[in-house]
Design brief:
By secondary structure, the chain is of the alpha+beta class. The chain contains 3 helices and 4 strands, in the order βαββαβα.
């Protein structure tokens, strides 16, 4: 039985996504020292895509950090000027 249930993604700004990633990394002792940046990528469908650029990630930390980012990417899409206008309507 598959438990791949998809919930609607929540719109968020770059600052909100950055804060959520920082909090999630801060809660995991392996990820506390990761330096990262949230990067907007070209718009596809509803909302802009985004990814995380991580620096100085140790091999024992990479898996944990990737899982954290993946969970946050599944939950939020980046609000761009087009999705802000359509969301307000």
């Amino acid at each position: 039985m598959s438990s791949d249930i998809r919930f609607p993604r929540t719109p968020a700004t770059l600052e909100e996504i950055r804060a959520r990633v920082a909090l999630a990394f801060g809660r995991n002792f392996l990820c506390r020292d990761i330096q990262f940046n949230v990067i907007s990528t070209p718009r596809l469908g509803q909302g802009a895509n985004w990814t995380i650029s991580m620096q100085q990630v140790g091999p024992d930390t990479l898996w944990e950090a990737s899982e954290i980012v993946s969970d946050i990417q599944d939950a939020y899409f980046l609000m761009d000027k087009y999705s802000i206008l359509s969301h307000a309507a």
